[in-house]
């Protein structure tokens, strides 16, 4: 379990709804995957 602030919680809920994800863990994994793509594109 992780502690997140209210703003982050709202963002995760938006990502979850927008992408049809089942839970916030999936939303966090989605964010990490998107960030990874961004990091690789900077090189």
Structural features, described:
The longest helix is centred in the C-terminal third of the chain and has 18 residues, at 24-41. The protein is built from two helices and no strands. The N and C termini lie far apart (33 Å). It is globular. The chain is an all-alpha fold and 43 residues long.
Give the fraction of residues assigned to helices. over 70%
| Strand residues, percent | under 5%
Radius of gyration of CA atoms, rounded to a whole number: 11 Å
Distance between the termini: 33 Å
**Count of all domains:** 1
The arrangement of helices and strands along the chain is: HH
Distinct helical segment count: 2
Coarse morphology: globular
Question: Would you report the number of β strands?
Answer: 0
Mean pLDDT: 95
Weakly predicted, low-confidence segments: none
Biggest sheet details: none
Derived from helix and strand composition plus strand pairing, the structural class reads mainly alpha
Features:
43 residues, mainly alpha
Sum this structure up briefly:
This protein is mainly α and 43 residues long. It is 72% helix and 0% strand.
Describe the secondary structure blueprint for this structure.
Layout: H1 6-18, H2 24-41
């Amino acid at each position: 379990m992780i502690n997140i602030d209210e703003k982050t919680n709202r963002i995760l809920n938006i990502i979850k709804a927008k992408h049809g994800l089942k839970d916030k863990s999936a939303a966090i994994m989605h964010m990490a995957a998107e960030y990874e793509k961004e990091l690789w594109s900077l090189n």
